[in-house]
Design brief:
A six-stranded mixed β-sheet has the order 4-5-3-6-7-8, with helices on both faces. Strands 10-9-13-12-11 form a five-stranded antiparallel β-sheet, sandwiched between helices. Strands 1-2 form a two-stranded antiparallel ribbon. 35% of the residues lie in helices and 21% in strands. The chain is α/β, with parallel strands linked by helices and 362 residues long. The chain has nine helices and 13 strands.
């Protein structure tokens, strides 16, 4: 691990854990219900679903670094919780978390305001409700969640046909692998039958994801959602492909280091284990930097232009991380024999970073 700085720890004497100031700085800010704070020009991600489906937990774990165990103490939302995510030019959007106990499709609410500027609609379903088996064995709450899903899709599509519809089959960490497949198949079949029964929804495409806040699946799923909101995605993918070919890199990700979602990757298929490794190196680099790196001026910045990390695994793979800007990092998987040409990799990384600067101002 290479670092140019050493960090000073800020202690909280109310508990035994030393806390680095960096950890509180690297956040998106607190939730707020006042919509006047938010830029209406930014695309919105709507989090919808029935009460206790896990919407607020997802938002807190992904974007506010809350421990999954701490989400057990979250209270149910009684109003729309709005989050403004604004880091680099690539990561610019809002998240609106809708309380599940209120039917916002009712005529008393302005659905045009909800769906008009929406870029993606994430409907969260509690996967444990469908553990019973076939659709005729689902309980009333399970059937209600799918009915609400279909109503939401129909209303949203009628107002804004450009919405990306995403379904998170959530809380599946306690289900067996075979059960996960069966639940996904049953829900997918139910939704497709509902779409086919309504000609006006014939062109609607829905993506399904199995998610849990207790593993990396929620981050991987949200990565796919956010990527659909990035206009420069194809250009970023081409840049990563070019970087891989010039440096003999097996796989590369461009990460938002706060949320650990990847905003772009190369064109090769994403292997979940590779993604988990690349995600974990971010935690390692930041944690070690918080212990050993402070600036020459004594500042508590643990992540700067010189931040990098190299970890060599027993299987002959090298994990390579380099800072791109304040909130972005390039993380790669490289075979050990190809890492011998480190100077070539460093040179091509600088070219990659320069290309990103030409693409947009961070």
């Amino acid at each position: 691990l290479t670092r140019s700085k050493t960090v000073k720890m800020a202690y909280n004497f109310d508990d035994d854990e030393p806390k680095a100031a960096f950890q509180s700085d690297m956040d998106y800010g607190d939730d707020a219900g006042d919509s006047t704070r938010y830029d209406t020009a930014k695309p919105r991600i709507l989090l919808m679903g029935l009460q206790s489906s896990g919407k607020s937990s997802i938002q807190q774990v992904v974007f506010h670094k809350m421990s999954p165990n701490e989400t057990l103490f979250l209270e149910s939302s009684n109003s729309i919780q709005k989050d403004d995510i604004a880091n680099s030019s690539f990561v610019q959007f809002q998240i609106w978390d809708f309380p599940g106990q209120i039917d916002f499709l009712d005529t008393a609410y302005d659905t045009q305001a909800f769906f008009g500027g929406c870029g993606a609609l994430v409907f969260v379903i509690d996967g444990q409700l469908f553990n019973a088996g076939e659709s005729d064995q689902w309980d009333e709450v399970a059937q209600l969640s799918l009915a609400r899903l279909m109503q939401t899709i129909e209303k949203g599509y009628s107002i804004n046909p450009d919405i990306s519809f995403e379904v998170f089959i959530h809380k599946v960490d306690g289900l067996a692998d075979d059960t996960k497949i069966d639940v996904t198949r049953e829900i997918h079949a139910f939704v497709q039958a509902g779409l086919q029964s309504k000609p006006q929804l014939a062109d609607v495409h829905i993506s399904f994801y199995l998610t849990s806040i207790y593993d990396h699946s929620i981050f991987e799923a949200f990565s796919k959602v956010v990527q659909k909101l990035i206009p420069q995605l194809s250009t970023l993918e081409n840049l990563l492909n070019l970087f891989n070919s010039k440096c003999n890199v097996e796989k590369s990700f461009l990460f938002d280091i706060v949320s650990k979602i990847y905003i772009a990757t190369d064109s090769t298929p994403v292997d979940m284990k590779s993604y988990e490794l690349c995600s974990d190196i971010i935690d390692v680099a930041i944690d070690v930097s918080c212990i050993y790196g402070t600036g020459e001026d004594g500042s508590l910045s643990a992540y700067d232009a010189q931040s990098s990390s190299v970890i060599k695994l027993d299987n002959g793979v090298v994990l390579y991380l380099r800072q791109v800007n304040t909130y972005l990092a390039l993380v790669c998987l490289i075979q050990a024999e190809n890492y011998d040409e480190k100077s070539l990799i460093d040179f091509n990384f600088q070219c990659f970073r320069d290309a990103l600067n030409q693409l947009t101002l961070f």
